[in-house]
Design brief:
Blueprint: H1 11-19, H2 27-37, E1 42-45, H3 52-66, E2 76-81, H4 85-98, E3 106-109, H5 115-124, E4 126-131, H6 133-142, E5 152-155, H7 158-163, H8 167-174, E6 182-187, H9 192-201, E7 206-209, E8 220-226, H10 232-240, E9 248-251, H11 255-267, E10 272-275, H12 281-293, E11 298-301, H13 303-306, E12 316-319, H14 326-333, E13 343-349, H15 354-364, E14 369-372, H16 408-413
Parallel strand pairs: 1-6, 1-7, 2-4, 2-5, 3-4, 5-6, 8-13, 8-14, 9-11, 9-12, 10-11, 12-13
Helix pairs in contact: 2-3, 3-4, 6-8, 14-15
């Protein structure tokens, strides 16, 4: 088994790893660190929770140790671009933790906060700068930051950068970097535009993949509840009353929806906090800290915040609404089963979301186990790919009388098994007609 002592890291970094409780490197760390220490470019395909932050942070810190010098004002030796404010802050915290015994100058630049402290920080110069692209461009255009001497650039979660419309700003930032530099590129998936960006940036890169693109973590147990749209909130409360759900993240599509779900859970005496782009930076950091420290059991978030939530011991992820982009499902459920732990992902799917579920199953190449919690009178979504063709009855056998002139939909309804039902809020599984089968969550 590979150990950190086998990777060529300085003793001062190994001491910090021991202090932080690191024992053995993850696969991406074991594969990436030796090549990065040699100065190679890297293309890493890795989901969140695989240890990729340490995979790029430790070689950068080793580079700083090998060439100790005071930072030049208004410059940074290493630049890490992250899609969200939360992720940027967490990456910076990791650099500080791994470098705690030699204390490199680490700074964060994100939007939503005052420019003043950022200007003062840049004026002193930095060893490592972690930034979101928009605010970083503001400082570049004003001349308060210069990248002509930057030695390393890291793009973390590049596919999420694409989702947020950051590809053009990233190209503008890269254009200001020196031609001779080390490039590190990490992404969980590889859409065509991201592959093009990687091709333009990287030179003879080492390829490291710890999981196939767009697959879900093997340790995440997944389940879908089919539910009427109006019954989602009640079912969510019922699920979260289970004491086995020790720490959960609930995902919604919209910021307003996140607020509404959090309020509904509060009214049901389930402590919850919402986190999304309309919250101030201090509100977002406080909500994350309360969630991480266990003062809040449920965090309700949008996809914007999904990549920025790096909290261990998240037992469950609940998709209150399925994402419209199937790749986002992979990132959402990656919030659980971190650091070697197991986890569970539960999705609430109404009839209108069935095509979204099909797209997720196609992308992840699996069929997700399900339970039907729709009411007897609820509408049914007929999946054309699952439709069973039945022979038409002969004309002379067609029944006469009241049924003969019935609309086609009514004729199809005759003889259809009764829908599964369950008393709302009881926690009991759906009842099926005799001979039917219901797949239950494990």
């Amino acid at each position: 088994m590979t150990k950190f002592t086998d990777l060529g890291l300085a003793e001062i970094l190994l001491r910090a790893l021991t202090h932080e409780g690191y024992e053995t490197p993850t696969p991406i760390q074991a594969q990436a660190i030796p090549s990065l220490l040699k100065g190679r470019d890297l293309l890493g395909i890795a989901q969140t929770g695989t240890g990729k932050t340490a995979a790029f942070a430790l070689p950068i810190l080793q580079r700083l140790l090998d060439d100790r010098r005071r930072p030049v004002p208004n410059t940074t030796r290493a630049l890490i671009l992250a899609p969200t404010r939360e992720l940027a802050a967490q990456i910076a915290d990791s650099f500080r933790a791994y470098g705690q015994f030699f204390r490199p100058a680490v700074g964060v630049i994100v939007g939503g906060v005052s420019h003043g402290p950022q200007i003062e920080m840049l004026a002193r110069g930095l060893d490592v700068l972690v930034a979101t692209p928009g605010r970083l461009l503001d400082h570049l255009r004003s001349g308060r930051l210069k990248l002509a001497t930057t030695e390393v650039i890291v793009l973390d979660e590049a596919d999420h950068m694409l989702d947020l419309g950051f590809v053009v700003p990233i190209r503008q930032i890269v254009a200001k970097l020196p031609k001779i530099r080390q490039n590190l590129f990490f992404s969980a998936t590889m859409p065509k535009e991201i592959a093009g960006l990687a091709g333009d940036m990287l030179k003879d890169p080492v390829h490291v993949s710890v999981a196939p693109a767009a697959t879900t973590a093997e340790r995440v147990e997944q389940h879908v509840y089919f539910v009427d749209g109006g019954g989602k909130r009640d079912l969510l409360v019922e699920l979260l009353q289970n004491p086995d759900i020790s720490r959960a993240i609930v995902f919604t599509r919209t910021k307003r929806g996140a607020d509404r779900v959090a309020q509904h859970l509060d009214h049901a005496s389930i402590g919850a906090a919402a986190i999304h782009g309309n919250k101030s930076q201090s509100q977002r950091l406080r909500a994350l800290k309360d969630f991480r420290d266990g003062r809040t059991r449920v965090l309700v978030a949008t996809d914007i915040a999904a990549r920025g939530i790096d909290v261990d011991a998240v037992s469950h992820v609940v998709n209150f609404e399925l994402p419209e982009v199937p790749e986002a499902y992979v990132h959402r459920i990656g919030r659980t089963a971190r650091a070697g732990a197991a986890g569970r992902a539960i999705s609430l799917c109404d009839n209108a979301e069935r095509p979204l579920l099909r797209a997720i199953e196609k992308l992840t190449r699996q069929s997700i186990e399900n339970t039907d919690r729709r009411t007897a009178g609820g509408a049914r979504y007929e999946d054309p790919e699952q439709e069973v063709r039945r022979p038409r009855p002969q004309q002379h056998h067609r029944p006469q009388g009241a049924g003969a002139g019935a609309p086609r939909a009514a004729q199809h309804a005759q003889g259809r098994p009764q829908a599964a039902t369950a008393p709302r809020g009881t926690g009991q599984p759906a009842r099926r007609p005799q001979g039917g089968a219901t797949r239950r969550p494990a």
